[in-house]
Amino acid sequence: MKTPRPTTKPTTDRAALLPLLGEVFRAHGYEGASLALITEATGLGKGSLYHFFPGGKKQMAQEVLAEIDGWFETNIFAPLRDPADPRAAIEAMLAGVETYFRSGNRVCLVGVIALGHARDEFAAPVNDYFARWQDALAEALRRSGLSVAAARRRAEDAVLSIQGALVLARARDDAKIFPRALAELKVRLLA
Description:
Shape: elongated
Radius of gyration: 18 Å
Low-confidence stretches: none
CATH superfamily of the domain at 62-190: Tetracycline Repressor, domain 2
Oligomer: single chain
């Protein structure tokens, strides 16, 4: 799978590099994200990359994971914790997930890292991401009337369904799988 080439001149904005790096890691995994692929995607040479990321590829991956985590915290986890309207928060979570993963056309980078050989290196942020997602969703489900145990099981099932649908949509190259899975998940979550 080819890494997207930059469409503009190389950036000198560190924040603008993170999405480019994220796509390299999504396409090739942490292990396969060579310096050559990273320089091709960013348009920056080795020296410039190490200027921005003195810790090398590990720091790049850590910062990309932190950016993803920040987006999910703001757009998915925090709204699920808001006591105002748990049903609306769950609906917003599903819409946000569909948008973020581009209706299943974008793999979950946190999942890619979790499944790769570098899993242990990034175990804490990967575990924290999934645990906070399940906890926030379980909290919303509990506020909508489920028991604590039922809310925990349904939240785990939801994250499993989302991640599994991403994998299956990608493996089958069928863009209809992910939105269909989210629609069915919505019925189960709001039942």
